[in-house]
Amino acid sequence: MQIYVVKPGDTVYLISRRFGVGIQSIIEINALQQIPFLVPGQALVVPTRESTYIVRPGDTLFSISRKFNVPISGILALNRISNPNLIYPGMLLRIPEISKNFGFIEVNAYIEPTTSAADTPVVNTVGSYLTYISPFSYQVNADSSLSAPNDSPILAAARPFRVAPLMVVTNFRNGNFDTGLVHGILSSDSLQRTLIGNILTILRAKGYYGLNIDFERIPPEDRELYNSFLRKVADTLRPLNIPLSTALAPKPFDIKVGEWHGAHDYRAHGEIDDFLVIMTYEWGWAGGPPMAVAPIDQVRKVIEYAVTVIPPTKILMGMPLYGYDWKLPFVPNPNPSQWAQRVSPQGAISLAARYGANIQYDTLAQSPFFTYTDENGTQHIVWFEDARSVQAKFLLVNEFGLRGVSYWVLGLPFPQNWAVLDNMFQIVKVV
Predict the structure, then answer these.
(1) How far is Cα of residue 123 from the mean position of the Cα atoms in its chain?
(2) Each residue of 323-358: b (16+ CB within 10 Å) or e?
(3) Is the link from the previous residue into 329 a cis peptide, with omega within 30 of 0?
(4) Quick one: fold of 104-319+389-427?
(5) How do residues 152-178 score in pLDDT, each as one tens digit?
(6) Second-level CATH architecture of 2-96
(7) Which residues are the active-site residues?
(8) pTM (two decimals)
Protein backbone atom coordinates (compact mmCIF):
# COMPACT_ATOMS: atom_id res chain seq x y z
CA MET A 1 0.00 0.00 0.00
CA GLN A 2 1.10 3.55 -0.72
CA ILE A 3 -0.46 6.92 -0.07
CA TYR A 4 -0.56 9.12 -3.16
CA VAL A 5 -1.55 12.79 -3.17
CA VAL A 6 -3.54 13.76 -6.26
CA LYS A 7 -2.01 16.40 -8.53
CA PRO A 8 -3.83 18.64 -11.03
CA GLY A 9 -4.56 16.68 -14.18
CA ASP A 10 -4.40 13.27 -12.48
CA THR A 11 -6.92 10.60 -13.38
CA VAL A 12 -7.48 7.19 -11.85
CA TYR A 13 -6.21 5.69 -15.11
CA LEU A 14 -2.92 7.63 -14.96
CA ILE A 15 -2.42 6.75 -11.28
CA SER A 16 -3.11 3.08 -11.99
CA ARG A 17 -0.51 3.11 -14.78
CA ARG A 18 2.01 4.85 -12.57
CA PHE A 19 1.76 2.22 -9.84
CA GLY A 20 0.97 -0.78 -12.01
CA VAL A 21 -2.30 -1.61 -10.28
CA GLY A 22 -5.84 -2.04 -11.54
CA ILE A 23 -8.16 0.94 -11.89
CA GLN A 24 -10.95 -0.85 -10.07
CA SER A 25 -8.76 -1.63 -7.06
CA ILE A 26 -8.04 2.08 -6.57
CA ILE A 27 -11.70 2.97 -6.99
CA GLU A 28 -12.89 0.36 -4.51
CA ILE A 29 -10.37 0.92 -1.72
CA ASN A 30 -11.03 4.70 -1.79
CA ALA A 31 -14.78 4.49 -2.56
CA LEU A 32 -14.21 6.85 -5.48
CA GLN A 33 -17.58 5.94 -6.95
CA GLN A 34 -19.04 8.15 -4.19
CA ILE A 35 -17.35 11.37 -5.34
CA PRO A 36 -17.70 13.13 -8.73
CA PHE A 37 -13.99 13.37 -9.57
CA LEU A 38 -10.50 13.48 -8.07
CA VAL A 39 -9.56 16.57 -6.08
CA PRO A 40 -6.04 18.09 -6.16
CA GLY A 41 -4.49 17.45 -2.75
CA GLN A 42 -6.70 14.42 -2.07
CA ALA A 43 -4.85 11.52 -0.42
CA LEU A 44 -5.49 8.16 -2.08
CA VAL A 45 -4.60 4.72 -0.81
CA VAL A 46 -2.99 2.75 -3.64
CA PRO A 47 -2.92 -1.02 -3.01
CA THR A 48 0.66 -1.65 -4.20
CA ARG A 49 2.97 -4.38 -2.94
CA GLU A 50 6.29 -2.59 -3.22
CA SER A 51 7.82 0.55 -4.74
CA THR A 52 11.21 1.72 -5.97
CA TYR A 53 13.44 4.60 -4.92
CA ILE A 54 16.61 6.07 -6.45
CA VAL A 55 19.15 6.93 -3.75
CA ARG A 56 20.02 10.63 -3.61
CA PRO A 57 23.17 12.34 -2.27
CA GLY A 58 23.02 12.45 1.52
CA ASP A 59 20.57 9.56 1.81
CA THR A 60 21.12 6.87 4.41
CA LEU A 61 19.16 3.70 4.98
CA PHE A 62 17.86 5.29 8.15
CA SER A 63 16.56 8.39 6.33
CA ILE A 64 15.05 6.25 3.57
CA SER A 65 13.34 3.98 6.09
CA ARG A 66 11.85 7.07 7.81
CA LYS A 67 10.74 8.50 4.48
CA PHE A 68 8.74 5.40 3.60
CA ASN A 69 7.84 4.36 7.19
CA VAL A 70 9.35 0.89 6.77
CA PRO A 71 11.99 -0.89 8.87
CA ILE A 72 15.61 -0.81 7.70
CA SER A 73 15.68 -4.60 7.99
CA GLY A 74 12.93 -4.87 5.39
CA ILE A 75 14.88 -2.76 2.86
CA LEU A 76 18.04 -4.78 3.51
CA ALA A 77 16.28 -8.10 3.05
CA LEU A 78 14.36 -7.15 -0.11
CA ASN A 79 17.48 -5.76 -1.78
CA ARG A 80 19.82 -8.46 -0.44
CA ILE A 81 22.14 -5.85 1.07
CA SER A 82 24.60 -7.30 3.57
CA ASN A 83 26.45 -4.06 4.36
CA PRO A 84 24.07 -1.19 5.21
CA ASN A 85 26.79 1.37 4.51
CA LEU A 86 27.20 0.35 0.87
CA ILE A 87 24.46 2.42 -0.74
CA TYR A 88 25.29 5.21 -3.19
CA PRO A 89 23.55 7.98 -5.16
CA GLY A 90 21.80 6.62 -8.22
CA MET A 91 21.32 3.18 -6.70
CA LEU A 92 17.86 1.73 -7.32
CA LEU A 93 16.29 0.33 -4.15
CA ARG A 94 13.14 -1.74 -3.84
CA ILE A 95 11.02 -0.49 -0.96
CA PRO A 96 8.99 -3.22 0.74
CA GLU A 97 5.28 -3.14 1.40
CA ILE A 98 4.74 -2.11 5.03
CA SER A 99 1.82 -4.50 5.53
CA LYS A 100 1.56 -5.75 9.12
CA ASN A 101 5.08 -4.56 9.97
CA PHE A 102 3.89 -2.67 13.03
CA GLY A 103 2.68 -5.61 15.07
CA PHE A 104 -0.52 -6.16 17.03
CA ILE A 105 -2.91 -3.56 18.40
CA GLU A 106 -6.38 -3.45 19.92
CA VAL A 107 -9.02 -1.26 18.26
CA ASN A 108 -12.14 0.14 19.90
CA ALA A 109 -14.88 2.16 18.23
CA TYR A 110 -17.80 3.99 19.77
CA ILE A 111 -21.12 3.90 17.94
CA GLU A 112 -24.29 5.89 18.58
CA PRO A 113 -27.15 3.39 18.21
CA THR A 114 -30.00 4.36 15.89
CA THR A 115 -31.84 1.57 14.09
CA SER A 116 -30.98 -1.95 13.04
CA ALA A 117 -31.25 -0.93 9.38
CA ALA A 118 -28.68 1.82 9.87
CA ASP A 119 -26.32 0.23 12.41
CA THR A 120 -25.95 -3.30 11.05
CA PRO A 121 -24.34 -2.25 7.73
CA VAL A 122 -21.89 -0.05 9.63
CA VAL A 123 -20.77 -2.94 11.83
CA ASN A 124 -20.62 -5.27 8.83
CA THR A 125 -18.31 -2.83 7.03
CA VAL A 126 -15.75 -2.39 9.82
CA GLY A 127 -16.23 -5.43 12.08
CA SER A 128 -13.12 -7.22 10.90
CA TYR A 129 -10.98 -4.23 11.96
CA LEU A 130 -12.30 -4.00 15.53
CA THR A 131 -11.37 -5.59 18.84
CA TYR A 132 -14.13 -3.82 20.75
CA ILE A 133 -17.33 -1.95 19.93
CA SER A 134 -18.87 0.49 22.40
CA PRO A 135 -22.53 1.49 21.98
CA PHE A 136 -22.92 5.00 23.39
CA SER A 137 -24.43 4.88 25.96
CA TYR A 138 -26.18 3.61 29.08
CA GLN A 139 -27.09 6.88 30.78
CA VAL A 140 -27.12 6.91 34.57
CA ASN A 141 -30.10 8.51 36.29
CA ALA A 142 -30.19 10.27 39.64
CA ASP A 143 -31.46 7.11 41.38
CA SER A 144 -28.63 5.01 39.78
CA SER A 145 -30.98 3.35 37.31
CA LEU A 146 -29.75 3.20 33.72
CA SER A 147 -31.47 4.33 30.53
CA ALA A 148 -30.58 1.83 27.82
CA PRO A 149 -29.70 2.53 24.17
CA ASN A 150 -30.96 0.36 21.32
CA ASP A 151 -27.84 -1.80 21.44
CA SER A 152 -29.21 -5.26 20.58
CA PRO A 153 -28.78 -4.94 16.76
CA ILE A 154 -25.19 -3.78 17.23
CA LEU A 155 -24.34 -6.64 19.59
CA ALA A 156 -25.85 -9.15 17.16
CA ALA A 157 -23.99 -7.69 14.18
CA ALA A 158 -20.67 -7.64 16.05
CA ARG A 159 -20.79 -11.29 17.11
CA PRO A 160 -19.83 -12.93 13.76
CA PHE A 161 -16.75 -10.68 13.57
CA ARG A 162 -15.63 -11.67 17.08
CA VAL A 163 -15.89 -8.05 18.21
CA ALA A 164 -16.07 -7.76 22.00
CA PRO A 165 -18.78 -5.33 23.14
CA LEU A 166 -18.05 -2.82 25.89
CA MET A 167 -20.93 -1.45 27.95
CA VAL A 168 -20.53 2.34 28.07
CA VAL A 169 -21.93 4.09 31.15
CA THR A 170 -22.14 7.90 31.12
CA ASN A 171 -23.53 10.85 33.03
CA PHE A 172 -24.88 12.15 29.71
CA ARG A 173 -28.28 13.81 30.04
CA ASN A 174 -30.20 16.38 27.98
CA GLY A 175 -27.48 16.70 25.38
CA ASN A 176 -24.44 17.10 27.64
CA PHE A 177 -22.52 15.54 30.50
CA ASP A 178 -24.31 16.46 33.72
CA THR A 179 -22.09 17.75 36.53
CA GLY A 180 -24.74 17.71 39.26
CA LEU A 181 -25.86 14.22 38.35
CA VAL A 182 -22.41 12.67 38.61
CA HIS A 183 -21.66 14.56 41.84
CA GLY A 184 -24.78 13.08 43.40
CA ILE A 185 -23.71 9.54 42.48
CA LEU A 186 -20.12 9.98 43.65
CA SER A 187 -21.25 11.50 46.96
CA SER A 188 -23.44 8.54 47.94
CA ASP A 189 -22.18 5.07 48.85
CA SER A 190 -25.68 3.63 48.54
CA LEU A 191 -26.21 5.08 45.06
CA GLN A 192 -22.83 3.70 43.99
CA ARG A 193 -23.68 0.23 45.26
CA THR A 194 -26.99 0.35 43.42
CA LEU A 195 -25.32 1.55 40.23
CA ILE A 196 -22.67 -1.17 40.34
CA GLY A 197 -25.39 -3.77 40.84
CA ASN A 198 -27.41 -2.40 37.91
CA ILE A 199 -24.31 -2.41 35.70
CA LEU A 200 -23.51 -6.00 36.61
CA THR A 201 -27.06 -7.10 35.83
CA ILE A 202 -26.89 -5.58 32.33
CA LEU A 203 -23.39 -6.89 31.66
CA ARG A 204 -24.61 -10.42 32.32
CA ALA A 205 -27.99 -10.11 30.61
CA LYS A 206 -26.63 -8.55 27.42
CA GLY A 207 -23.41 -10.54 27.23
CA TYR A 208 -21.10 -7.55 27.34
CA TYR A 209 -17.40 -8.40 27.43
CA GLY A 210 -16.33 -5.40 29.51
CA LEU A 211 -17.27 -2.03 30.95
CA ASN A 212 -16.27 1.46 29.80
CA ILE A 213 -17.09 4.33 32.17
CA ASP A 214 -17.21 7.75 30.54
CA PHE A 215 -17.99 10.24 33.31
CA GLU A 216 -17.18 13.79 32.19
CA ARG A 217 -17.60 17.30 33.56
CA ILE A 218 -17.00 15.94 37.08
CA PRO A 219 -16.36 18.66 39.68
CA PRO A 220 -12.57 18.71 40.13
CA GLU A 221 -13.03 18.52 43.92
CA ASP A 222 -14.66 15.10 43.32
CA ARG A 223 -11.44 13.67 41.90
CA GLU A 224 -10.79 11.32 44.82
CA LEU A 225 -14.46 10.38 45.03
CA TYR A 226 -14.29 9.29 41.39
CA ASN A 227 -11.11 7.29 42.01
CA SER A 228 -12.78 5.61 44.99
CA PHE A 229 -15.84 4.71 42.93
CA LEU A 230 -13.66 3.18 40.22
CA ARG A 231 -11.86 1.05 42.81
CA LYS A 232 -15.23 -0.30 43.98
CA VAL A 233 -16.15 -1.13 40.38
CA ALA A 234 -12.80 -2.82 39.77
CA ASP A 235 -13.10 -4.85 42.99
CA THR A 236 -16.48 -6.10 41.78
CA LEU A 237 -15.54 -6.88 38.19
CA ARG A 238 -12.02 -8.27 38.52
CA PRO A 239 -12.98 -11.56 40.24
CA LEU A 240 -15.47 -12.06 37.38
CA ASN A 241 -12.78 -11.45 34.72
CA ILE A 242 -14.73 -8.49 33.34
CA PRO A 243 -12.32 -5.77 32.12
CA LEU A 244 -12.80 -2.19 33.31
CA SER A 245 -11.89 0.78 31.15
CA THR A 246 -12.51 4.51 31.42
CA ALA A 247 -12.49 7.45 29.02
CA LEU A 248 -10.20 10.35 29.90
CA ALA A 249 -10.00 13.94 28.68
CA PRO A 250 -6.70 14.79 26.95
CA LYS A 251 -4.18 16.81 28.94
CA PRO A 252 -0.41 17.36 28.59
CA PHE A 253 0.21 17.45 32.36
CA ASP A 254 -1.75 16.75 35.51
CA ILE A 255 -4.34 19.49 35.28
CA LYS A 256 -6.33 19.49 38.53
CA VAL A 257 -8.82 22.25 37.76
CA GLY A 258 -11.71 22.62 35.35
CA GLU A 259 -14.81 20.53 34.79
CA TRP A 260 -13.40 18.59 31.83
CA HIS A 261 -9.91 17.75 33.10
CA GLY A 262 -9.58 18.23 36.86
CA ALA A 263 -11.22 15.03 38.11
CA HIS A 264 -9.49 12.73 35.61
CA ASP A 265 -6.50 11.37 37.50
CA TYR A 266 -4.29 9.68 34.90
CA ARG A 267 -2.06 7.92 37.43
CA ALA A 268 -4.98 6.52 39.44
CA HIS A 269 -6.83 5.33 36.31
CA GLY A 270 -3.64 3.68 35.11
CA GLU A 271 -3.49 1.73 38.37
CA ILE A 272 -7.20 0.88 38.60
CA ASP A 273 -8.22 0.20 35.00
CA ASP A 274 -7.43 -2.81 32.85
CA PHE A 275 -7.09 -0.33 29.98
CA LEU A 276 -8.30 3.17 29.17
CA VAL A 277 -9.22 5.51 26.32
CA ILE A 278 -7.57 8.93 26.09
CA MET A 279 -9.89 11.11 24.01
CA THR A 280 -7.21 12.82 21.95
CA TYR A 281 -9.54 14.84 19.74
CA GLU A 282 -11.75 17.95 19.80
CA TRP A 283 -9.02 20.59 19.79
CA GLY A 284 -10.99 21.82 16.82
CA TRP A 285 -14.61 21.54 17.96
CA ALA A 286 -17.97 22.65 16.61
CA GLY A 287 -18.34 25.73 18.84
CA GLY A 288 -14.69 26.79 18.76
CA PRO A 289 -12.39 28.44 16.22
CA PRO A 290 -11.37 26.46 13.13
CA MET A 291 -8.42 24.12 13.56
CA ALA A 292 -7.54 20.46 13.20
CA VAL A 293 -9.71 18.15 15.32
CA ALA A 294 -6.71 16.05 16.40
CA PRO A 295 -3.48 17.92 15.56
CA ILE A 296 -0.60 15.49 15.90
CA ASP A 297 1.61 17.97 17.78
CA GLN A 298 -1.03 18.34 20.50
CA VAL A 299 -1.80 14.61 20.55
CA ARG A 300 1.90 13.91 21.01
CA LYS A 301 2.10 16.18 24.06
CA VAL A 302 -0.77 14.30 25.70
CA ILE A 303 0.75 10.88 25.00
CA GLU A 304 4.20 12.00 26.15
CA TYR A 305 2.69 12.91 29.52
CA ALA A 306 0.36 9.91 29.72
CA VAL A 307 3.10 7.29 29.36
CA THR A 308 4.96 8.77 32.33
CA VAL A 309 2.08 7.84 34.68
CA ILE A 310 0.19 5.07 32.83
CA PRO A 311 1.65 1.85 31.41
CA PRO A 312 1.64 2.35 27.61
CA THR A 313 0.13 -1.12 27.17
CA LYS A 314 -3.02 0.15 28.88
CA ILE A 315 -3.57 3.16 26.58
CA LEU A 316 -5.97 3.30 23.64
CA MET A 317 -5.29 6.60 21.86
CA GLY A 318 -8.42 8.37 20.63
CA MET A 319 -8.86 9.05 16.92
CA PRO A 320 -11.64 11.01 15.17
CA LEU A 321 -13.54 9.67 12.18
CA TYR A 322 -14.84 13.15 11.36
CA GLY A 323 -14.03 16.77 10.71
CA TYR A 324 -15.85 20.11 10.85
CA ASP A 325 -17.04 22.69 8.34
CA TRP A 326 -16.84 26.23 9.81
CA LYS A 327 -18.28 29.39 8.31
CA LEU A 328 -15.87 32.32 7.99
CA PRO A 329 -15.16 34.67 9.54
CA PHE A 330 -15.47 32.66 12.75
CA VAL A 331 -17.65 34.39 15.35
CA PRO A 332 -18.17 32.72 18.77
CA ASN A 333 -21.84 31.93 19.27
CA PRO A 334 -23.52 30.28 22.27
CA ASN A 335 -26.24 28.87 20.02
CA PRO A 336 -25.27 25.32 18.90
CA SER A 337 -27.41 25.69 15.77
CA GLN A 338 -24.83 28.24 14.56
CA TRP A 339 -21.81 26.03 15.23
CA ALA A 340 -19.69 24.20 12.67
CA GLN A 341 -21.20 21.19 10.95
CA ARG A 342 -19.65 17.76 11.45
CA VAL A 343 -18.53 16.09 8.21
CA SER A 344 -17.13 12.67 7.40
CA PRO A 345 -13.74 12.50 5.68
CA GLN A 346 -15.48 11.15 2.59
CA GLY A 347 -18.04 13.94 2.81
CA ALA A 348 -15.24 16.50 3.04
CA ILE A 349 -13.76 15.22 -0.23
CA SER A 350 -17.19 15.50 -1.87
CA LEU A 351 -17.49 19.09 -0.64
CA ALA A 352 -14.09 19.96 -2.06
CA ALA A 353 -15.05 18.42 -5.40
CA ARG A 354 -18.41 20.19 -5.46
CA TYR A 355 -16.92 23.64 -4.90
CA GLY A 356 -13.68 23.19 -6.85
CA ALA A 357 -11.44 23.49 -3.81
CA ASN A 358 -7.85 22.28 -3.62
CA ILE A 359 -6.98 20.33 -0.48
CA GLN A 360 -3.99 21.56 1.51
CA TYR A 361 -2.04 19.80 4.25
CA ASP A 362 -0.80 21.35 7.50
CA THR A 363 2.54 19.68 8.22
CA LEU A 364 2.62 20.72 11.90
CA ALA A 365 -0.87 19.43 12.69
CA GLN A 366 -0.51 16.61 10.12
CA SER A 367 -4.07 17.33 9.00
CA PRO A 368 -5.75 18.26 5.69
CA PHE A 369 -7.97 21.29 5.18
CA PHE A 370 -9.49 23.41 2.43
CA THR A 371 -11.57 26.55 1.95
CA TYR A 372 -14.53 27.17 -0.31
CA THR A 373 -17.28 29.70 -1.00
CA ASP A 374 -20.85 28.43 -1.02
CA GLU A 375 -23.81 29.47 -3.22
CA ASN A 376 -24.66 32.33 -0.86
CA GLY A 377 -21.16 33.79 -1.06
CA THR A 378 -20.25 32.60 2.45
CA GLN A 379 -16.69 31.41 2.93
CA HIS A 380 -16.01 28.13 4.73
CA ILE A 381 -13.00 26.21 6.02
CA VAL A 382 -13.04 22.45 6.50
CA TRP A 383 -10.58 20.51 8.66
CA PHE A 384 -10.80 16.72 8.44
CA GLU A 385 -8.76 13.49 8.44
CA ASP A 386 -7.20 11.58 5.55
CA ALA A 387 -4.87 8.64 4.94
CA ARG A 388 -1.80 10.76 5.76
CA SER A 389 -3.16 12.06 9.06
CA VAL A 390 -4.23 8.66 10.35
CA GLN A 391 -0.92 7.10 9.32
CA ALA A 392 0.85 9.78 11.38
CA LYS A 393 -1.28 8.84 14.38
CA PHE A 394 -0.67 5.11 13.88
CA LEU A 395 3.07 5.80 13.83
CA LEU A 396 2.67 7.61 17.17
CA VAL A 397 0.94 4.53 18.60
CA ASN A 398 3.84 2.41 17.38
CA GLU A 399 6.48 4.85 18.65
CA PHE A 400 5.15 4.80 22.21
CA GLY A 401 4.17 1.12 22.28
CA LEU A 402 0.53 1.86 23.04
CA ARG A 403 -2.15 -0.79 23.37
CA GLY A 404 -4.04 0.58 20.38
CA VAL A 405 -6.60 3.14 19.23
CA SER A 406 -10.20 4.10 19.94
CA TYR A 407 -12.44 5.79 17.37
CA TRP A 408 -15.15 8.36 17.78
CA VAL A 409 -17.49 7.68 16.06
CA LEU A 410 -18.67 4.95 13.65
CA GLY A 411 -21.16 5.77 10.89
CA LEU A 412 -19.08 8.43 9.12
CA PRO A 413 -17.53 7.03 5.90
CA PHE A 414 -13.72 6.98 5.89
CA PRO A 415 -12.56 4.01 3.80
CA GLN A 416 -8.91 5.05 3.71
CA ASN A 417 -8.61 4.82 7.50
CA TRP A 418 -9.50 1.14 7.57
CA ALA A 419 -7.20 0.38 4.63
CA VAL A 420 -4.22 2.05 6.33
CA LEU A 421 -5.02 0.44 9.70
CA ASP A 422 -5.30 -3.01 8.17
CA ASN A 423 -2.14 -2.52 6.17
CA MET A 424 0.01 -1.56 9.15
CA PHE A 425 -1.28 -3.73 11.99
CA GLN A 426 -2.63 -7.08 13.03
CA ILE A 427 -5.90 -6.50 14.88
CA VAL A 428 -6.22 -8.39 18.18
CA LYS A 429 -9.42 -10.33 18.77
CA VAL A 430 -10.20 -11.12 22.42
CA VAL A 431 -13.33 -13.25 21.89
Answers:
(1) 16
(2) bbbbbeeeeeeeeeeebbebbbbbbbbbbbbebebe
(3) yes
(4) TIM Barrel (3.20.20)
(5) 999 999 999 999 999 999 999 999 999
(6) Roll (3.10)
(7) 216
(8) 0.91
